[in-house]
Design a protein that fits this description.
alpha/beta; 8-stranded parallel sheet; 7-stranded parallel sheet; binds adenosine-5'-triphosphate; P-loop_NTPase; ATP-binding
Length: about 700
């Protein structure tokens, strides 16, 4: 209120003996105008002065000049500015969507300014970076020496310079992951960090890593493991300096080793715990992924007292309950230190398993985070957070490590140390959309990323909405992408040609629906000569598990799948991915092709494209930052030899499908009859019971 009492506008005037109101306001206006003029003059004088100081540096754009001026400011002012920035960072947590949007707009403006700056920067610098990129692209050429014609040659160098810039220069708060530009397996090896060079890992874990054949950490692991370990350097109960640790978001390519990047530091941090409580919770979108992560956790927890429990609905609810808590000696005890779960089953346990407690949760790991954000409508996260801050019955509220839901930072909120909850987010296609990220309630998130959003070229005619920044992702370094122009009727012959003639194996093939996957499976099976299996929600979890296992063990040459196997699944030795149906979304493409070229290995990805799909697909992939999808033509004469048998198989296929449908109808009919008769029996027995009464 004091601000409103400043008498500046009234000046010397006195209410009693001054001029009338009208003349006073005129005088006031004149005075203000005079002041404004004076300020303007002063400002232009300062600018002139700084121009003369920076003689010979005329090319420095306005923003840089401003920065230089600021450099000349005193230390005290700088400190004030830093404090302001930190404050801004802290308040980010409570930002509204609107604030996020306005910041987003501001960021876009800044990006534009940066681009302008880059244009005017010295040619020497540009030459240097072109040199580096040339080296990288040469390595890539070695990898794909048998490539057919390169459709993307026009955009190559400039785009690669741009990509390189994106890889090495992250926006504020982003830590670039080294060695992210695609440069083939050789380039990948250069960025490995010896395991022993990362401090804070106990001898047991080091031994385990060695046993598992891991001598070096991948770049993402070398960056993220120390960051997580640093946040627990004062133990699990308080963050560094008593402050809540920053949440961590990691966006790194498929197959770059994100799983170990959280498994190792979490196991290391929890190995110091005394009492067993659930202190780490990993949430994954599917049962298969949860199983995979649980396996890695269990492998590294082996030999310690840590217990890993999986709750995905694979076992009965009662069996899962029994693995989570036990009742002994008049009290309930947690049987798990680390829980790996799918969101639906987790919420069921939060609500229905008495004494399943998340009140000691220290790490919440959200893998495939962008997909998990999309499933946020199930409100699983808010239920987890509620369970974390739920007050314990009979708990001592005065306990020094009490837990209260974090709110705005005030002197009072900082007076008591808080047992922190730290969120760790991982994805190959992590969204940088602030509105989406806001749903996760992140605390001063620290982002580890090799690429970041970039505005699409405004003059690009095929970009429909220029207001939305095009998200760019990093592709595995050993991946070579191709597209194969084809017609609808030739697609099945193409996949057979890949396996029977070109001898590609093992091949993971994606369709856009489970019906398409099943039909193609039947067709290849009837054609013969290829060991084939399918993977989709048509199959039971156990059947799916068997398909994956057989494929991994080399019993299956071709696995035909829906997008159920597109994300996160780590199948060793997949040499080739085929997009039998072109994916509709770029994220789907990134994850599908990411099933090959994992862990620095080389791999091939082919996308079958109908004429009508070509333009949009290539544009979509190029906009997302792919180094280029090359055209691979399969000549019609190469397919001729298989056509006769194929036509015959098509007839057989129709019959098989008809039979399957008839069986299904019969099965449904029988099921329906048995339910009806069960109901009849129930109602009759009810009637008898009623009559007896
Ligand atoms: N340091 C390492 N040295 C050798 N192999 C490793 C290392 N780290 C991870 N791997 C292997 O690399 C493969 C890919 O790892 P992981 O599944 O964690 O990748 P990811 O980044 O999570 O991929 P996606 O985004 O597809 O889920 C796994 O088979 C894993 O065993």
């Amino acid at each position: 209120m004091a601000l409103f009492l400043i008498n500046r506008y009234l000046g010397d005037e006195n209410d009693n003996d001054g001029p009338s109101n009208e003349s006073r306001s005129k005088a006031l206006l004149a005075k203000l105008q005079e002041k404004a003029r004076a300020r303007q003059q002063q400002k232009s004088a300062t600018e002139e002065e700084s121009k003369s100081q920076l003689s010979g540096e005329e090319v420095i754009p306005k923003k840089k000049r401003k920065l230089k001026d600021q450099d000349a400011l005193g230390q005290g002012q700088k400190r004030k500015k830093k404090e302001k920035l930190e404050h801004k960072d802290l308040s980010a947590e409570t930002d509204t969507g609107e604030n996020c949007l306005s910041r987003k707009k501001k960021k876009r403006k800044e990006t534009k300014t940066e681009e302008l700056e880059a244009e005017t920067s010295s040619s020497e610098e540009v030459e240097k970076s072109v040199g580096t990129v040339k080296k990288n692209s040469e390595q890539q050429r070695v990898l794909a020496s048998d490539k057919p014609q390169d459709l993307d040659s026009e955009e190559s160098e400039e785009d690669e310079v741009e990509r390189e810039k994106n890889c090495t220069k992250g926006p504020d708060g982003f830590t670039p992951v080294a060695g992210s530009a695609r440069c083939g397996p050789e380039g990948y090896k250069k960025n490995l960090v010896p395991v022993v060079d990362i401090p804070g890992i106990c001898p047991r874990l080091l031994k385990k890593l060695e046993t598992n054949g891991i001598k070096h950490f991948f770049p993402v692991q070398a960056e993220v493991i120390p960051a997580i370990l640093e946040s627990v350097c004062h133990g699990l109960l308080v963050g560094r300096g008593g402050y809540r640790p920053r949440d961590i978001c990691v966006s790194a390519p498929t197959g770059s080793g994100k799983t170990l990047a959280f498994v190792i530091p979490v196991i290391q941090a929890l190995s110091q715990r005394v009492v067993r409580e659930v202190r780490a919770l990993a949430v994954l979108p599917t049962k298969e992924l949860a199983q995979q992560v649980c396996k890695v956790f269990s492998s590294y927890a082996e030999g310690s007292s840590l217990k890993v429990v999986m709750v995905t609905g694979q076992k009965s609810f009662a069996a899962e309950q029994a693995s989570l808590v036990e009742h002994s000696g008049g009290r309930n005890r947690s049987l798990a230190d680390i829980v790996v779960a799918t969101p639906g089953r987790l919420v069921d346990h939060i609500n229905k398993t008495a004494d399943f407690s998340l009140q000691h949760l220290r790490f919440l790991i959200i893998d495939e985070a962008d997909r998990m954000i999309d499933s946020m409508h199930q409100s699983w996260l808010s239920q987890v957070v509620k369970a974390v801050y739920r007050s314990r019955s009979g708990s001592n509220e005065a306990s020094i490590f009490r837990r209260t839901e974090p709110g705005p930072i005030t002197a009072t909120s900082l007076s008591q140390p808080q047992m922190p909850l730290q969120k760790l987010l991982f994805s190959a296609t992590l969204t940088q959309n602030p509105e989406k990220l806001q749903q996760l309630g992140l605390h001063q998130p620290r982002l580890f990323s090799s690429v970041h959003s970039r505005l699409p070229a405004t003059d690009s005619p095929s970009t429909p909405d220029t207001s939305q920044p095009q998200e760019r992702f990093n592709f595995p370094q050993g991946l070579t992408e191709y597209y194969v122009p084809c017609t609808l009727s030739k697609k099945p012959l193409l996949i057979l040609h890949f396996l029977l003639r070109l001898k590609f194996s093992p091949v993971l093939c994606f369709t856009n629906s489970r019906e398409a996957a099943h039909r193609l499976f039947l067709l290849v099976h009837l054609f013969g000569g290829v060991q084939v299996a399918e993977f989709s929600s048509r199959l039971s979890p156990n059947e799916r598990k068997k398909s994956l296992k057989d494929f991994e063990q080399g019993k299956i040459q071709l696995l035909i799948s829906t997008d159920a196997a597109a994300r996160g699944i780590d199948i060793k030795g997949v040499k080739c991915v085929v997009n039998y149906d072109a994916p509709q979304f770029i994220r789907t493409y990134v994850h599908r092709v990411g099933r090959t070229a994992r862990a620095g290995k080389a791999g091939l990805a082919f996308t079958f494209l109908l004429g009508i799909q070509e333009k949009n697909f290539l544009q979509m992939v190029r906009d997302a930052g792919s180094p280029g999808v090359q055209k691979q033509i399969v000549k019609p004469e190469n397919l001729k030899g298989m056509e006769g048998r194929y036509q015959q198989i098509l007839l057989e296929l129709e019959n098989v499908i008809k039979e399957e449908r008839a069986k299904k109808r019969k099965g449904l009919l029988l099921k329906d009859q048995s339910t009806r008769s069960q109901r009849r029996v129930a109602s009759e027995s009810g009637l008898v019971a009623w009559n007896r009464r």
